[in-house]
Amino acid sequence: MYTLYYSQGACSVATQVVLRELGQDVKIIDAKQDNNFKSVNPVGAVPVLIDGNKTLTEGAAIMLHILNKHKSSLFPENEDERLKSTQDIMFANATMHPAYGRLFFLAQHVSDEKVKQETLNAAAESINQLWQVIESQLADKSFLGGDSPSAADIMLTVYSRWGQYFPVDIIIGDKTARMLDAVQAMPNFIKTDQAEQFATAD
């Protein structure tokens, strides 16, 4: 069994969904409820995955670790397709995730309301450009990986929900919106949301 440190609604949602899709049992621990979490990850960020005697602390590294360890359609075996899947995961983790992260940073650290709104709008425009990239990639397929959801689709779906917390217009194309809806309708995505809500309220 894996142990996953999470924060409700954070990027750790994607890790948990993928673990469930891989048929793996996972014990989840709310990092905010653990007074010693900094001893687990000095950076203080989630996800953190405990796999036996290994402690993994970077989202993309965790994702690639579990995908390499457990064969599934989420991570194809064909070399070219696997390279594309890895690139999609890194785009989600290293490009889209930080773009949304700027919204959180600006909301927390800019006190002048006019300046805050202007900078939030600029950050949102950058996010919208990234969603246009995804929309173009979905021109001839339902998911980034083809006919079924990939790990990157799951990661992007988690990030897409963060825009609701800010007074900005996040513009998502029709094909992308259908992909995001389909991922959120996955039984293991719903199960993960429910598990986090139950564990946090416990």
Give the gist of this structure.
By secondary structure, this protein is α+β, with helices and mostly antiparallel strands.
Helix and strand arrangement:
Elements: E1 2-6, H1 12-21, E2 26-30, H2 37-40, E3 48-51, E4 54-56, H3 59-69, H4 79-109, H5 113-137, H6 151-160, H7 174-184, H8 187-201
Parallel strand pairs: 1-2
Antiparallel strand pairs: 1-3, 3-4
Describe what you observe in this structure:
The protein has 202 residues and is an alpha+beta fold. It has 2 domains: 2-73 and 187-201, Glutaredoxin (3-Layer(aba) Sandwich), CATH 3.40.30.10; 79-184, Up-down Bundle (Glutathione S-transferase Yfyf (Class Pi), Chain A, domain 2). 58% of the residues lie in helices and 8% in strands. A 4-stranded mixed β-sheet has the order 2-1-3-4. Strand 1 (2-6), helix 1 and strand 2 form a beta-alpha-beta unit. Helix 1 (12-21) runs parallel beside helix 3 (59-69). The radius of gyration is 17 Å and the shape is globular.
